[in-house]
Structures are given as structure tokens and as C-alpha cells.
């Protein structure tokens, strides 16, 4: 298929359709409302359903319902909306249901603002809702990757029967780039007769299924937590994704960044190279599972004097980078918030200061 | 041949058709031609990549940029400054109104209907055939009907803005021009101009394009783009 010019939000909507998702429930919020706008036009054309909930709390449980019934389902929202959905996310994770949540992050905390931000890293990777659960979190750096990761999110959600989050920011949602869609996802939701409440009349099994997150027996609840933990350990082994940029030579500094921020860092690294200064970038594409070993290996390279995490936040991913580098190299931080995005020139200035 | 349009010009089209980039570049070209130019950003729908982001380079050239109070510039609110109605009543030689996307984006024009019906306005539909929903004649006609119904004004002309950003080729521009020519034949509307990035202009065969060409210098780019 030829390339088309799409906004990130529209491309995410189209990617969901091509992944076979015919159920999309959402509540509008800037800067992701175009996903709903797009899917409200497109889903009826392919026999799908778009339903606007009365709030994000309701939407979270509509997702739980569809997911528990074995349907491919997605919602999209932005930061305050994801906070409202966080209770449902915890329930969905506890009940081992697959679902795709997209967060097009805006500035917070509180109602914050409508401009791009990476302030929801903690919320996405460390919880958000209550209890011992994790989302698998994918962080695209542009419209093409947003398409690929949205499609992949359904496969991963079904592989682990766990909610998967695609986390972009306002820039990823709003910017336009040429995109090419991969082949449609042809697989069916896997093994759903074994666990989903998809209706006895359509099932191949005679045993009724129960989807639940309530475990009043302590041993049973402990066992459910161990089952969840085993999935997270499997994710760490099998589904870590990352990119290294300009990391083949002897770089003096390693920049850790993801999403929109990594696009700016890439420009800064190219500009530094033109001046004869070598800087490399480590870009996690999965924020959970975090590429722990990969950032360590890149940081401990002899030529590398220090690591800096550059974020559109006040310092969130930097805690994972510090944890993984284990004190082997100094880990610095620079960030801006509220829709301010560090410029390539600012990054160059900071890098030059750090490497002397 | 550069576009030479005067009067009150409303730029409309579907989301992401390139309305704002077209509007700010038309303002710049008109100003460079020595005309007095006013421009306003009427995009009350989409908060990103709006023509207001080009305020400084336009103001530096002497284009009058009419915008809401700066403290509301990033507000997620449909603010229509009264200065816009004044601008229509007292137009410059070239007065450009950059509307928002789709039918929702031009709904604001209905609020200005009283002043607009007293003026002779051009409502131009920007088409990028590489965008969803306007990749064929039928899609463009549907968009036209939706814009007209919401704006309560007829579309009076077409602009072809065929592009894939940095991946645009001359063939993309020719193909887009062909499609918009068919829209022109179906509607009887004139193609006011097509656009082409300044990078591609020297590669275009002037024999193949029978209307003016607006050169585009990208003013509304993401923050990592450096040329």
C-alpha cells in the first residue's frame, strides 16, 4: 500500500482497525480526540462499534467487559482520563484480560495543560492503579512507529492476557508524518474459549468460565499475584525492545530518551557529530519491561564518561536508568515540562558542559 | 507564476490538509509582493500546529496577525476575538482567515455570518489527496458539502496541497493536480493555485501546471527539525 500522510491520532485509529479491533470505547480529551473522531467515521464502515462513554471511569469498565468476553478492544485517552481509568486497569490486569490502552500524554499534574509531556512515565510503568500489577508499555517515537506498536499491542495483550499501553505524547498524537501500514493482523484472539466469558452457545468447551479480580482466600490471592509476576518476568525475557543510535563508535556520553524527546536528541546528536563530538542515544521502546541490561551495557562502555536522561518531565525515567546503571557511571538529568520541549541547541549546550 | 489573490480569503479543508501552512505561506508571498496583509487563526478546534505558531516570522515581515490575548493562546477553549469581526469590516488588501479542520472547524464562520454576508469573501478548500477521506473526487465533494453546510457559505475555489512532507516527489504533485482538476471539472470551481515546497519547485515542469504555484517554506514544523 502506498504511503499516506496521517496525524498520529488518526494513524492509531486506523492501526487498531487493521489489527482486527472492532470495539472502541472512549471519552474525548485533548490532545487525543482525533482518535475518536477518526474511528467514529471508520468503524461503522467495517462493521465495528464506537461508543462514547459517559466518563473515563465508565469507559474503563466497558473495556473490561468487552475484554472479559474475549473481544479485541481499545480505548484512547490523555493523562487525567487515564487516571480515571486506573481502577479498571488494575481490575483488568488482576483478571488476566487483554486490552489496549493508548495514553497521548498532556502536561500535568492536575488538569495541567493540553501540550505534550512525558509526565505519566511513573503512572504507566509503576502502577497508576492499586496492587501488584504492571502494564506492558510501548513508547513510539513517531507516527509510523505508533502504527506498528498499536498493532503489536493487540498481539502482546493476547500473548500475556494483560493490558498493554501505547504511550505517546501530544506531539505524537498531533504531528503528521507519511505512514505505510503493515499487513493486517490476521490472527484471532488466542485461546479465548479457555478463559473468556464469550457465551456458552458459541464455545467449544462445556465448562463455564469466570473472569474476576476478587480473591477472598489469601492463598488464592497470593497465587494470582505469583501468576502475574511470572508474566512480568516472561515479558522481561521475551519482549524488551530498544534502539541504540550512534552507539557503534567511541561516544563520550550516553543520552537516554524516548518518544518525542528522542527525536530532538537525535537531531542534537547529529549536530554534535558535525562538530566532532560523539554522543550516543539509548531509546527504550518498551518502558515496561525496561531494557535493563541494554542500558547498563551501553553506559559501561570505556569511552562513555556519563549518562544523561533527557525527558519532558521533572525526572521519571531517570530513576530506572540510575537503577540499571548501578552507580557504574554518573547519571545526570535534564527535563522541561508543561509543553516546553528541550531544543536541540539546549541539549548540545548541556552535553558540552558535561563532557567538559 | 505566484498566486495573486486579493480580498477576504477563508482557507478551509479537512483536518491536516495543510490549511495553516498554506495560509501562512500565502500571507508571506502576498506581503513580499508589496500588499498589505492581515491574517487570523480561526482554528478553534485543534490546539497544535496552528498558524498562530508562525506569528513572529509573519509579524517580522509586516503581516498583521490577529489573535486572541496571548494568555489564552494555548487554552483548549473556542475563543473568537472580536478583533476578527473588525478585521472583516476593515479588511486589508489581502485578509486571510485560517479556519479549523472539517465541518467542525468552519462552524465558527456561521458565528461571523452577519459580517461575512456583507463582504465579498472567497472560501477556498485545501485538498491534499494523500490524506484520508480526500483521496478521491467523491471524498473531496463530500468534504466540500460538509464545509458548506457548517460554514453557511459556498466554497468558491480549490487549492491543491498534495504532499507527503519531506517525501514529496514531483509525481505526487502532478497526481494531486490531476485529481483536483477532476474535482474542478465536477464542481465548476477554479483551482486558485497549487502548492509546492521551495525544494521541489525547480524540478517541476511549468508546462504541466496551468495555474499559479504557491511556494511553501515549512513554518509549522515539529521542534526537532533543523535545516
TrEMBL record, chain A:
Alphabetic keyword roster: Oxidoreductase
GO MF annotations in UniProt: oxidoreductase activity
InterPro entries for this protein: 2-oxoacid_oxidoreductase, PFOR_II, Pyrv_Fd/Flavodoxin_OxRdtase_N, THDP-binding, Transketo_C/PFOR_II
Superkingdom of origin: Bacteria
Entry-linked Pfam families: PFOR_II (PF17147), POR_N (PF01855)
Signal peptide: none
Domain Pyruvate flavodoxin/ferredoxin oxidoreductase pyrimidine binding: from-to ranges: 14-192
The Pyruvate:ferredoxin oxidoreductase core domain, residue ranges: 253-347
PANTHER family on file: SUBUNIT OF PYRUVATE:FLAVODOXIN OXIDOREDUCTASE, SUBUNIT OF PYRUVATE:FLAVODOXIN OXIDOREDUCTASE-RELATED
Protein name (Swiss-Prot/TrEMBL): 3-methyl-2-oxobutanoate dehydrogenase subunit VorB
Source organism of the structure: Desulfobacter latus
Gene designation: vorB
Automatic annotation (TrEMBL), chain B:
UniProt xrefs under Pfam families: CbiA (PF01656)
Coiled coil: none
Family annotation (SUPFAM superfamilies): P-loop containing nucleoside triphosphate hydrolases (SSF52540)
Domain named CobQ/CobB/MinD/ParA nucleotide binding: residues: 8-159
Protein name listed in UniProt: Cobalamin biosynthesis protein CbiA
Lineage, highest ranks first: Bacteria, Pseudomonadati, Thermodesulfobacteriota, Desulfobacteria, Desulfobacterales
Amino acid at each position: 500500500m502506498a504511503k499516506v500522510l496521517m496525524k498520529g491520532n488518526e494513524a492509531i485509529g486506523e492501526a487498531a482497525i487493521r489489527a482486527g479491533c472492532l470495539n472502541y470505547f472512549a471519552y474525548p480529551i485533548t490532545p487525543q480526540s482525533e482518535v475518536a473522531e477518526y474511528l467514529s467515521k471508520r468503524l461503522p464502515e467495517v462493521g465495528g462499534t464506537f461508543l462514547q462513554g459517559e466518563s473515563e471511569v465508565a469507559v474503563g469498565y466497558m473495556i473490561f467487559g468487552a475484554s472479559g468476553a474475549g473481544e479485541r478492544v481499545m480505548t484512547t485517552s490523555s493523562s487525567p482520563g487515564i487516571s480515571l481509568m486506573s481502577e479498571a486497569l488494575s481490575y483488568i490486569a488482576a483478571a488476566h484480560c487483554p486490552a489496549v490502552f493508548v495514553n497521548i500524554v498532556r502536561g500535568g499534574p492536575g488538569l495541567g495543560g493540553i501540550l505534550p509531556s512525558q509526565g505519566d512515565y511513573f503512572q504507566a510503568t509503576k502502577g497508576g492503579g492499586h496492587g501488584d500489577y504492571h502494564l506492558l508499555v510501548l513508547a513510539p517515537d513517531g507516527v509510523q512507529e505508533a502504527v506498528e506498536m498499536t498493532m503489536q499491542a493487540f498481539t502482546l495483550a493476547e500473548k500475556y492476557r494483560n493490558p498493554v499501553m501505547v504511550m505517546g505524547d501530544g506531539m505524537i498524537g498531533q504531528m503528521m508524518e507519511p505512514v505505510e501500514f503493515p499487513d493486517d493482523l490476521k490472527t484471532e484472539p488466542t485461546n479465548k474459549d479457555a478463559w473468556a466469558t464469550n457465551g456458552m452457545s458459541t464455545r467449544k468447551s462445556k465448562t463455564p468460565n469466570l473472569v474476576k479480580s476478587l480473591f477472598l482466600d489469601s492463598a488464592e490471592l497470593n497465587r494470582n499475584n505469583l501468576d502475574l509476576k511470572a508474566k512480568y518476568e516472561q515479558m522481561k525475557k521475551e519482549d524488551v525492545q530498544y534502539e541504540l543510535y550512534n552507539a557503534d563508535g567511541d561516544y563520550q556520553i550516553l543520552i537516554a530518551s524516548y518518544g518525542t524527546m528522542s527525536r530532538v536528541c537525535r537531531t542534537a546528536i547529529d549536530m554534535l557529530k558535525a562538530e566532532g563530538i560523539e554522543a550516543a542515544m539509548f531509546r527504550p521502546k518498551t518502558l515496561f519491561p525496561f531494557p535493563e541490561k541494554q542500558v547498563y551495557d551501553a553506559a559501561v562502555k570505556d569511552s562513555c564518561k556519563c549518562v544523561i536522561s533527557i525527558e519532558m518531565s521533572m525526572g521519571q525515567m531517570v530513576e530506572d536508568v540510575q537503577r540499571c546503571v548501578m552507580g557504574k557511571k554518573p547519571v545526570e538529568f535534564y527535563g522541561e515540562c508543561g509543553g516546553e520541549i528541550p531544543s536541540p541547541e539546549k541539549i548540545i549546550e548541556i552535553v558540552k558542559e558535561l563532557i567538559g | 507564476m505566484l498566486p495573486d489573490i486579493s480580498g477576504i480569503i477563508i482557507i478551509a479543508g479537512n483536518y491536516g490538509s495543510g490549511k495553516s501552512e498554506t495560509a501562512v505561506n500565502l500571507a508571506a508571498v502576498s506581503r513580499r509582493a508589496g500588499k498589505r496583509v492581515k491574517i487570523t487563526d480561526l482554528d478553534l478546534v485543534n490546539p497544535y500546529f496552528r498558524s498562530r505558531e508562525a506569528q513572529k516570522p509573519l509579524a517580522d515581515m509586516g503581516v498583521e496577525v490577529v489573535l486572541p490575548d496571548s494568555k489564552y493562546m494555548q487554552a483548549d477553549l473556542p475563543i473568537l476575538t472580536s478583533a476578527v469581526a473588525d478585521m472583516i469590516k476593515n479588511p486589508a488588501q489581502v485578509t486571510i482567515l485560517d479556519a479549523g479542520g472539517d465541518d467542525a472547524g468552519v462552524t465558527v464562520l456561521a458565528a461571523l455570518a452577519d459580517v461575512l454576508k456583507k463582504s465579498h469573501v472567497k472560501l477556498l478548500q485545501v485538498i491534499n489527496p494523500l490524506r484520508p477521506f480526500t483521496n478521491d473526487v467523491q471524498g473531496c465533494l463530500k468534504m466540500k458539502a460538509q464545509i458548506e453546510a457548517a460554514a453557511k457559505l459556498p466554497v468558491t475555489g480549490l487549492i491543491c496541497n498534495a504532499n507527503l512532507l519531506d517525501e514529496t516527489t514531483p509525481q505526487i504533485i502532478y497526481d494531486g493536480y490531476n485529481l483536483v482538476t477532476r474535482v474542478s471539472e465536477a464542481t465548476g470551481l477554479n483551482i486558485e493555485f497549487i502548492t509546492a515546497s521551495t525544494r521541489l519547485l525547480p524540478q517541476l515542469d511549468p508546462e504541466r501546471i496551468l495555474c499559479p504555484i504557491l511556494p511553501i517554506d515549512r513554518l509549522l514544523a515539529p521542534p526537532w527539525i533543523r535545516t
